[in-house]
Design brief:
mainly alpha, elongated
Length: 159
């Protein structure tokens, strides 16, 4: 066995020695060694605008207005009045069936949004149940606006 092969075989053993402490247990981090408590999750601060944007809560905490915001960020770019490939969602609940042939109701619309389809992205891991409830309530009750009159900014205050 050459010296190169011996050195190569020694690398895993050296790594194991470096990762364990003198008593054989795994080495603790600097904070644990200093006795610092494990960091808990910080409380959410809804005064941070970025958190409101990330959780789709700029317009409202819940309900149809929040659903409108989710629709704008997740659905509008495919389901707007200019596209020809994706179905328009205005009047969806007046139709008897979805494009897949399923009857139109809250459960089937949520299932379609969660699992997507051949030409639609799935939002199973992106939108929570609360997000879906608000989105479906918007699609059912107020959907949809046209690009010439987008939803108003709730933070804008005219003089």
């Amino acid at each position: 066995m050459s010296s190169f092969e011996r050195r190569l075989m020694a690398v895993p053993a050296a790594i194991a020695v470096l990762l364990t402490s003198a008593n054989g247990s795994p080495r603790a981090s600097a904070q644990e060694a200093a006795g610092a408590p494990q960091a808990s999750r910080p409380a959410k601060d809804y005064n941070q605008r970025s958190l409101e944007i990330f959780e789709f809560r700029k317009a409202a905490r819940s309900g149809v207005e929040r659903g409108q915001e989710i629709f704008y960020y997740k659905c509008w770019f495919c389901h707007n009045e200019f596209v020809k490939e994706a179905p328009h969602l205005k009047g969806l609940y007046q139709k008897p069936t979805l494009g897949s042939g399923q009857p139109v109701n809250d459960a089937t619309v949520k299932e379609k949004i969660r699992n997507g389809g051949p030409a639609m992205a799935a939002y199973k891991y992106t939108l929570s149940d609360d997000d879906l409830n608000d989105l479906v309530s918007y699609i059912r009750e107020k959907c949809c606006w046209d690009s010439d009159s987008p939803p108003r900014n709730p933070r804008y205050r005219a003089n």
